UniProtKB/TrEMBL annotation:
Lineage: Eukaryota, Metazoa, Chordata, Craniata, Vertebrata
Cellular component aspect of the GO annotation: centriole
Gene that this polypeptide is encoded by: poc1b
Pfam families attached to this UniProt entry: WD40
WD repeat residue intervals: 14-55, 56-87, 98-139, 140-181, 182-223, 224-265, 266-298
Listed PANTHER family: POC1 CENTRIOLAR PROTEIN HOMOLOG B, WD REPEAT-CONTAINING PROTEIN 55
Designated name of the protein: POC1 centriolar protein homolog B
InterPro entries for this protein: WD40/YVTN_repeat-like_dom_sf, WD40_PAC1, WD40_repeat_CS, WD40_repeat_dom_sf, WD40_rpt, WDR55/POC1
């Protein structure tokens, strides 16, 4: 049977670092890739044929993170030397230095408008900086242990962070307050990021799990147990349909979030994989590992989904607005226990450089988007005043879940149609083979 997915393919493999590659990030135009390393250097790899890479020494200790600004005109790097550097990604490699924290700086991240960037540190704080003036703005200090990662939401109004205090926190930038906390006593998270819609956050745990949380309802949506060691990094596909994960077990895994299953396991590296990232267009992704290599892959598996499904889906759906702060409730910590759902998926067979897994989990998982075009009036308008507030809120949540299910069915219908078309095409090709054979006789 034909599949609507095509296998990812290894495109390039970059060697230049002398120690573990700690982070990778694509430029906004997809023409360059930045990598940071424990060798205290930042490298800029050019995809243009016969173009040389740029290597930037400057940090005194291991570089922990690197990221392009939204304009692509600057690259920011964080380091164990407690500084942040801002580089011009050209052959000169000029940089300015910010003495950012009193301990190791683990992460740096730009807001989508490019005006602000944040840093996360072992000094238990998150700091915000004005990019143009390169000046400190404010600190977020409610974490009680090292802060591993901090990321802006797509609209720039929220920050998600994870810490060795075993919490994932959501911060309101306007009020500079923590407005939500997810707690997991099994272990801390190494990495956290928002999905492209800004409605969910995913966390990569030292307990080898990947969790996806809905920040509107404070609920754990998906819980994947697909790695055999701690998960170091993750990256959402621009469509929001797929999630890349990198682990100490030496693999990169690709999760289909709409179907709630593992679809690929990649084995390109020799040693723990520390970072993964999709390009801004989603047609490529990169990985970096302790083997000092950077691998660049052609996505392929999004060929039908992003170009066909999303195109068809736009006829009946509209983009979902980012969550309002009033939608994020309650403000008390949300404790995750072992009673939550999990997906335990094992690869069926091994292919060259990767494994592909086509088995579906035993129960459906909720998707990550829920806005249906044509919903002009909320079903509860007009009756809320006659109902207790708790009952009204419950009914609203039920209606929201029904909207989620409606869109899920819509997307699955499109996927089924694409698969049927592909199967029909294959059958037609098979029927042509005997005809060509008889003509040649």
């Amino acid at each position: 049977m034909a599949s609507a997915l095509e296998d990812p393919a290894l495109q390039r493999h970059f060697k230049g670092h002398k120690d573990a590659v700690t982070y990778v990030d694509f430029s906004p135009d997809g023409k360059q890739l930045a990598s940071s390393s424990a060798d205290a250097c930042v490298m800029i790899w050019n995809f243009k044929p016969q173009s040389r890479a740029y290597k930037y020494p400057g940090h005194k200790e291991a570089v922990t993170c690197v990221q392009f600004s939204p304009s692509g005109h600057l690259v920011a790097s964080s380091s164990k030397d407690r500084t942040v550097r801002l580089w011009a990604p050209n052959i000169k490699g000029e940089s300015s230095v910010l003495k950012a924290h009193t301990a190791v700086v683990r992460c740096v991240n730009f807001s989508s408008d490019g005006h602000t960037f944040i840093t996360a540190s072992d000094d238990k704080s998150i700091k915000a900086w004005n990019l143009h003036r390169q000046r400190f703005l404010y600190s977020l200090t409610e974490h009680t242990n090292w802060v591993r990662c901090a990321r802006f939401s797509p609209d720039g109004r929220l920050i998600a962070s994870c810490s060795d205090d075993k919490t994932v926190r959501i911060w309101d930038i306007t009020n500079r307050l923590c407005i939500n906390t997810f707690v997991d006593y099994k272990g801390h998270s190494n990495y956290v990021d928002f999905n492209p819609m800004g409605t969910c956050v995913a966390s990569a745990g030292v307990d080898s799990t990947v969790k996806v949380w809905d920040i509107r309802t404070n609920k754990l949506l998906q819980h994947y147990q697909v790695h055999n060691a701690g998960v170091n990094s993750l990256s959402f596909h621009p469509s929001g349909n797929y999630l890349l994960t990198a682990s100490n077990d030496g693999t990169v895994k690709i999760l289909d979030l709409l179907e709630g299953r593992l679809i690929y396991t990649l084995h390109g590296h020799q040693g723990p994989v520390l970072s993964v990232a999709f390009s801004k267009s989603g047609d490529q992704f990169a990985s970096g590992a302790t083997d000092a290599q950077v691998l660049v892959w052609k996505t392929n598996f999004d060929k039908y989904n992003i170009k066909e499904i999303v195109k068809l889906q736009q006829k009946r759906t509209c983009p979902e607005a980012p969550p309002h702060l009033n939608d994020i409730y309650p403000k008390t910590p949300h404790l995750h226990t072992s009673s939550g759902h999990s997906i335990e998926t094992k690869a069926l067979h091994t292919l060259n450089k990767y494994e592909r897994n086509d088995n579906v989990c035993n129960y459906p998982m909720p998707p990550l988007a829920s806005s249906v075009e044509g919903q002009k009036e909320h079903p509860l308008v007009g009756v809320q005043g006659a109902l207790p507030r708790s009952l009204s809120n419950t009914l609203e949540q039920i209606v929201d879940q029904l909207n989620v299910l409606t869109q899920t069915v819509s997307i699955l219908e499109h996927r089924l149609t694409l698969t049927e078309d592909k199967l029909k095409e294959c059958l037609e090709n098979q029927q042509k083979i005997p005809a060509h054979a008889s003509e040649s006789d």
